[in-house]
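Form 7-S
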Amino acid sequence: MSALRVSGLEVSLGGTRVLDGIDLEVAPGEAVALLGPSGSGKTTLLGTVAGFVVPDAGTVSLGGEVVSGGGRSVPPEARSVGFVFQNYALWPHLSAAETVAYPLLRAGAAAGEAREEAARLLDLMGLGGLAARRPAEMSGGQQQRVGVARALARRARLYLLDEPTAHLDSALRTDLQAEIAARMTADGAAALYATHDAAEAMAVAGRVVVVREGRIVQQGTPAEVYARPADVWAARLTGPAWEIDGAAAGVAAGRVLVRPEWVEPGEGMAATVRHAWFRGPHTDYRLDTPAGEMAMRRPGPPEWRPGDAITVTVARWSETALG
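Output:
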């Protein structure tokens, strides 16, 4: 039985179609990332699943139960979902500890148990010392972490996360991802994770669903979506990518797509280094070649400087994105 099944979902807001024929299924214990730019419909899809948005057509089922569609609309509080809002949506009159404890108390937990679990979750989010503060006394990033802790306290069958790490540093992002994974393993819960960050989508999810203008344009494992993007738009959404002349590069007839790590120094095509940017763990180069402009990524500090003449080979390429 699916944790979530969305069929033929259509949603219009203010007379504009925002979701158009969305079909999506999430299995228990599965983490799925919705990847798309702002305005692609990710937040609206999460809101429709949660019950905050009523669809024009289609159905939403949670755990095999239809909660939207067919004349039925289960209210948000009766759906077993934990929602992390992009805009925090904290209650101004409750402290951080009270906010996180609230869903536990509603679920029937004893007051002491709810306090202990709220304290643990706040510690996990790096907020143990701010438990007594209200939203007005916290920064935006701190409020966001309280929202994440509140959603995790819900112990839901499905977590809906809308850009949950937008204001978190890398260490806290890692802790959050680990906690979500632990909850999913322990409870058999699923997660639907909306983000515009391709690296984050690939890190948190076993499946990536690429969304553009209210439609799903591609879905697959992170490796599949990255290596064989549906088109050039999807390729550039998931990371740096360049179209080059495959024949001039000696790899294929017609134009192909290459990513920086697919280009390597070695016998092959002449290239001139236009730029070299040291990123810490690696250096990014921009190259001029007979096949066109492309990029190359190499570990460590710069080996070449702008103006240097080198030779490179295209070790890997994709033709699927270009038809």
